[in-house]
Amino acid sequence: MLEIRPNCEYCDKELMPDAADAMICSYECTFCQKCVAEVLENVCPNCGGGFTPRPIRPKVARRAGVSLVHQQPSSKRVHTKFSQEQIKAFASQVKAIAPEER
Q1: Could you read off the pLDDT of 31-86 as tens digits, one per residue?
Q2: Is residue 2 helix, strand or coil?
Q3: For the whole model, what pTM was predicted?
Q4: How far is residue 53's CA from residue 33's CA, in Å, rounded to a whole number?
Q5: What Pfam families does UniProt report for this protein, alphabetically (predicted)?
Q6: Which residues contact 12 (CB under 8 A, 6 or more apart)?
Q7: Measured distance CA(8)–CA(23) in Å, rounded
Q8: Is 13 left (phi over 0), alpha (psi -120 to 50) or beta?
Q9: What's the rounded Cα separation, in Å, for the pair 82 and 29?
Q10: Pick from 8, 15, 6, 101: which is nearest to 46 by CA?
Q11: SS3 (DSSP) at 34
Q12: CA distance linking residue 28 with residue 15, whole number of Å
């Protein structure tokens, strides 16, 4: 089950559980759309994968036991360990390769 992390790992922007601009990679690294487009160039600095919009968990249990009330999002803030320079260098090496080919 997705953690639904509360922030962009790069700029620390608050990403509420229903944020339409939250992006994740297959390892759930979480970044805002702006950072994915303008800084990361669709390359996860942690794994090298691409990004997809983070799904939004239902607020109301339309099926028994399945909602934000029952599976709460993470409150643990995560930050990438890589510097801006390291991220740019990594992205420049990987961005020309389509995410499905990485």
Answers
A1: 999 999 999 999 999 999 999 999 999 999 999 999 999 999 999 999 999 999 99
A2: coil
A3: 0.92
A4: 8
A5: DUF1272 (PF06906)
A6: 77, 79
A7: 9
A8: beta
A9: 13
A10: 8
A11: helix
A12: 13
Q: Where are the domains of the chain?
A: 22-97
- For residue 101, the model assigns a pLDDT of 96
Enumerate residues 6+ apart whose C-beta is below 8 A from 4: 17, 54, 57, 73, 74
Q: Amino acid letter at 66?
A: V
Q: Residue 11 in contact with residue 26, Cβ under 8 Å? A: no
Structure tokens at 34: 């702006």
d(CA 57, CA 24): 14
Tokens standing for 41? Answer: 């160039």
CA angle 86-20-71, nearest 5°? 95
Give residue 87's pLDDT band: very low, low, confident or very high (50, 70, 90): very high
- N-term to C-term CA, the chain: 24
